[in-house]
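All the exercises in this workshop are built on plain-text protein records. A record pairs a protein's sequence with a compact description of its fold. Read left to right, the backbone structure tokens trace the chain's path through space. Once this layout is familiar, the rest of the handout is easier to follow. Here is such a record, shown just as it appears in the course material:
>
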Amino acid sequence: MEQDIKNTLDQQAVKIEQIYRSVEKTRKMFLWTLIISVAVIVLPLLGMIVLLPRLFSYYGSLTGLGL
């Protein structure tokens, strides 16, 4: 009886370790998805906020010259 309980606990320990590894891989995948999303979406938007006023002022100076 005690041997059966010990075997069951050992099997559960192995399964818990496998679940932990799987959860850690999933967590890392979500983290990298977040980082890539920020790099692809947020950084270009910030760049546009900074660069568009310069582009418009440059375009305005060209139209002022009659070009």
Summary: The mean pLDDT is 91. The CA atoms of residues 9 and 59 lie 73 Å apart.
